[in-house]
Amino acid sequence: MDLKSGGNSFAFQMGLEIEEMKHGQSKGILRVNENHQNTVGLVHGGVLCTMADTLCGAAVLSGIAKNRHPLTMDLNISFLKAAKGKVITGEAATIHLGNRTAKVECSLKSEDVLIARAYATFIIVDKGR
């Protein structure tokens, strides 16, 4: 699966661009538009959750065999500040990679200000299961 060219169609359609995937880490960018806003004009929490989940999965995917696939078991996100800018950047890093599970942390920033921190746990399965 090539996440950089739309392998995750939901996140791709949302506008998330995966800029880097290597060695258990990933980086991405989202250019904010009106479709990402909630009823008070701020970036919707679900957009940030999707971004964090996708970047965490990409980080795991970059560190496992091509015939394996990570599936999210748990995602915990803390919203720290409202996203004020027109661009959100994210970085995810695998902090544990076992044969069956992985643990990843992710930071999301807007205008270089930390707006959310997420932690995710993945189960790693063989593709086709």
Task: Kindly report how far apart the N and C termini lie.
Answer: 15 Å
Assigned CATH superfamily: Hotdog Thioesterase
CATH class: Alpha Beta
Percent of residues in helices: 10-25%
Strand order of the largest sheet: 1-2-4-5-6-3
Rg for CA atoms: 14 Å
Q: Note poorly predicted spans.
A: none
CATH topology: Thiol Ester Dehydrase, Chain A
- Overall pLDDT: 92
The tally of beta strands, per DSSP, is: 6
How is this structure best described in words?
The protein has helices at 9-14, 45-61, and strands at residues 17-22, 25-31, 68-79, 87-97, 101-110, 113-126. The model has no long low-confidence stretch (mean pLDDT 92). A 6-stranded antiparallel sheet has the order 1-2-4-5-6-3. It has a single domain (3-126), classed as Roll (Thiol Ester Dehydrase, Chain A), CATH 3.10.129. It is elongated, with a radius of gyration of 14 Å. The chain starts with 8 loop residues before the first helix and ends with a strand. Strand 5 (101-110) and strand 6 form a beta hairpin. By secondary structure, the chain is an alpha+beta fold.
